[in-house]
């Protein structure tokens, strides 16, 4: 930040920020701080799972329950939705409204596929008697993965809302700012998912 | 901040220097993510390594690398964005996360090992 620099000797020294203030920037920083606080929520849930993840109460272990093929497909869905959201952002920068909407729609489809697979997995676990009440391991598992799924659900609601907004009002500065916030949110959820599939699924199955 | 605007990928952005990605950047991130996702799944599902501990360390290590890749290529983290404040917030969060994770596991591990061992019968008779 070049706040108090004096370029020339004949120029008056300035003791205030000469750069223009951009409201988008402060929104981005504020949203980043929110994401960091969200990160703390997940850190606590990860710590809980780290402590309780081996307490099976004579019940099923991760190796008995988890289908890694399903987890791999799920991971692919979320990763694909991340890159398609990136493409939507690139189209937004080009001011291409229709293309932005198409990529956002594709992102939504991948997100919905992710949620569908996760709900399918949860449904089967509960059907097999491995619900959240079965053991400490399953309680912490459902809390952690469920919280992530809930975030994706709200991300989907946000995504659909923004698609309607962009369709109605176009890519105006407000919608751009919102799309950039959702972009950070969406990529952040993908980052959290890396922790989930590494720590919960892969290390769980490894035993 | 002024040097930021001169970089080629940001030449078309309309002035507000928040880090925007380029198609190339997203593709690099995407390909790296695929590779870094496939390796740990392959290690665990294929049972490639004999040592479980080594596999676990590798899986977590690759996970950390992938998180960094996502931060750089998808979330466009760099030390200059927002005048360095996003980086400061991130470092602060990482310290807190590290304390919370390491502290919880450390304390609870000692608690576990120092507790009286519990048999199945004792567990059944628990209130």
From TrEMBL, chain A:
**MF terms in GO:** cytochrome bo3 ubiquinol oxidase activity; cytochrome-c oxidase activity
Where is it predominantly found? membrane
Q: What GO terms in the biological process aspect are recorded for it?
A: aerobic electron transport chain
Instruction: Tell me the compartments it is located in.
Output: Cell membrane
Stated role: Cytochrome bo(3) ubiquinol terminal oxidase is the component of the aerobic respiratory chain of E.coli that predominates when cells are grown at high aeration. Has proton pump activity across the membrane in addition to electron transfer, pumping 2 protons/electron.
- What quaternary structure, including any partners, is listed in this protein's UniProt entry? Heterooctamer of two A chains, two B chains, two C chains and two D chains.
**Protein name, please?**
Cytochrome bo(3) ubiquinol oxidase subunit 3
Protein source organism? Shinella kummerowiae
Underlying gene:
cyoC
TrEMBL record, chain B:
Q: Which UniProt keywords apply?
A: Cell membrane, Electron transport, Membrane, Oxidoreductase, Transmembrane, Transmembrane helix, Transport
Gene Ontology CC, one term: cytochrome o ubiquinol oxidase complex
Give membrane topology per the record: Multi-pass membrane protein
Q: Name one GO molecular function term.
A: proton transmembrane transporter activity
From the record, give the transmembrane residue ranges.
26-46, 53-75, 87-108
The answer on whether this UniProt entry bears the keyword Oxidoreductase reads: yes
**Annotated localization:** Cell membrane
One GO biological process term: electron transport coupled proton transport
Main location per UniProt?
membrane
Q: Which PANTHER family match?
A: CYTOCHROME BO(3) UBIQUINOL OXIDASE SUBUNIT 4
Q: Describe its function.
A: Cytochrome bo(3) ubiquinol terminal oxidase is the component of the aerobic respiratory chain of E.coli that predominates when cells are grown at high aeration. Has proton pump activity across the membrane in addition to electron transfer, pumping 2 protons/electron.
Q: How does it assemble?
A: Heterooctamer of two A chains, two B chains, two C chains and two D chains.
Similarity comment: Belongs to the cytochrome c oxidase bacterial subunit 4 family.
Protein name, as recorded? Cytochrome bo(3) ubiquinol oxidase subunit 4
Question: Where does this protein come from, organism-wise?
Answer: Shinella kummerowiae
Highest lineage ranks of the organism?
A: Bacteria, Pseudomonadati, Pseudomonadota, Alphaproteobacteria, Hyphomicrobiales
The gene is cyoD
